[in-house]
Amino acid sequence: MGTGEQSPADGSGSTPDGVRAGVAIHGTTNCPVVAASTVHDGPITGVNWTHAGDTHTEEFRARDPDAVDRAEGVPEAASVVDLGDERVYRYDRPREGECACRIIEELDCPIADARAEDGVLLLTLHLPNLQRLRDVVSALDGTAERVEVRYLVQGAARGDGVSDRTLVDRGRLTDRQCEVLRTAYRMGYFERPRDANARDVADALDIAPSTFAEHLAAAQRKLLEETLAAN
């Protein structure tokens, strides 16, 4: 295109309404970088990979070389380049076994960024819609203990054609607040009419109704702050 202008991938000329999602995968198996992150001080970053035949080659950046050497379940990694405050490593292994990143790629979903910290695989994905995100989470079922959507940036065009983006950062919620929200949602507390009242949800959580109300109010306040802060 000689004008230098770029058209949307669908050629429609409309503003895309896809999502940017931060996904945390807990307890994933067959991931040496995640294994190394359990003994590494700080995140392991710059994770990327390539496939050639039956060989999977992976590269990553680490600030603590000793941690990489003593990590269990990590193939022998070769130091590629020293960048001063961190070092780039590369290792090869067979393309076998379940791998969270490969599962996502097989859904035709490129991974924008990958890192690992404290045994958790952290991925950034750009997806066309929320249903695609649900597909990713569903595909990972059985390969990890838990999949958490830590933040979500959703783009949607308003009537004037200006993009209206909302950021929801679930990382602001405590584990207990997330559990309360999930249980209340699953039991139909937010339906109209409600399928469960506050006491029903509190009993399911084995807490007092007043405690349920406190957790719910705190979680809702945080989510509203995220949603309405820019308004």
Automatic annotation (TrEMBL):
The keyword Transcription regulation applies. InterPro entries: DmsR-like_N, HTH_bacterioopsin, WH-like_DNA-bd_sf. Keywords: Transcription, Transcription regulation. Residues 16-154 form the DmsR-like N-terminal domain. Signal peptide: none annotated. It holds the Pfam family HTH_10. Residues 173-225 form the HTH bat-type domain. Residues 1-21 are annotated as: Disordered. This is Helix-turn-helix domain-containing protein. It comes from Halorubrum miltondacostae.
